[in-house]
Amino acid sequence: MSSNNVVVKIAQPYAVALLELANTKQAIQQINQDIQLIQDILLQSDTLKIFLANPLKTTESKKQVIIATFADQISDNTLSFLMILVDRKRIAMLDVIASKYLELAYQMESLTIANISTSLALNSDQKSLLTDKIKVMTNAKEVKLMISVDPELIGGFTIQIGSKVIDTSIRGQLRQMASHLDVATT
């Protein structure tokens, strides 16, 4: 079992607990916003991520940094949840727990998350067409696109929905051709 699978298995109960903490639709929406904000901040600050993952930092110092960073931006429930993660020494997994939580929350709302990697930024028409296609493919009521730009794809895009990956990128096509050539020459 890979270490990533272990981390996801550890993150799952915490994500479920946070989802259960939100007992009304309004509370779920608030925690969703909080978690998205936390993810955005973690994406922008490698320093914060490294600090929270550092086992040599005390729980008290981690709590102080979390309060200073998030207290005026997130709800009390979410802040309390972060304190529990610090106490249980799981704060280093915050980004995985946050992703798992959002995945579960969106599943509950019949919302499908599609992770899109493109070589160039998509315009609104392209996003709309992609959303419509994914709705048809997955029979989902709603689709949320999580778009990232990856110039290494050369051209095209990849779509990941759960464990299913659709690779229309030039890089993917080149890899596929290379693997066929390797098989043909052996």
UniProtKB/TrEMBL annotation:
Please verify whether the record's keywords include Ion transport. Answer: yes
State the UniProt keywords alphabetically: ATP synthesis, Hydrogen ion transport, Ion transport, Membrane, Plastid, Transport
Location in the cell reads: Membrane
Instruction: Name the source's superkingdom.
Output: Eukaryota
Q: Name one GO molecular function term.
A: proton-transporting ATP synthase activity, rotational mechanism
One GO location term (cellular component): membrane
**Per the similarity annotation, which family is this?**
Belongs to the ATPase delta chain family.
Q: What is this protein called?
A: ATP synthase CF1 delta subunit
Tell me what organism the protein belongs to. Bangia fuscopurpurea
